[in-house]
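thread: overnight batch results

M.L. [08:02]
morning all. the overnight job finished for the chain we discussed friday. pasting input first so we're all looking at the same thing
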Amino acid sequence: MNKGLIPRRYAKALYEVGEERKANDTLYGLMQNLCAAFAAEPKLATTIANPFVSEADKTTLLTNAAGDTGATSDATFQDFLKLLAQNGRLDMAWDIARAFIDLYRTRHSIYRVKIVSAAPMGEAERKRLEDVISHHIGKGTMEYDYTVDPSLIGGFTVEVNSERLDASVASKLKQLRLQLVD
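M.L. [08:03]
and the structure it wrote out:
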């Protein structure tokens, strides 16, 4: 079986259980935290995949990485981790979390918008750009991620799902260079 298929099946099952228990909004936040933890700490994936680390320790690591501790602990997430442990799939937690996030965003019309600018944008610039993006997309919710990349020289790039708009000076210079070569 394809490794991509298994995480999608677990994510879909988790989504359906979360829907029944009205826990999907909480699960979405936990899965985002989990993905952020895996991205920030590459050794987490290695540790979770290590056969010499006990399932209990792996479960604790994943619980802490997702921020599912104390009074805010979510029963659906804990049941999910137990299921993964029983089936020997804890090492797929990151892939399942990403698949769950994708499924949740699709079902809730949430668009991930990545904006990279050459310099930090002011609040007025952000608002104007967000208005243009929201007008272009129409219905749905946008999750914005702003970063700065001085190599753009000036301007910005916007990526919404698979669409990309490059309004950077670096891109314009590259296009000009290609036209001069032709």
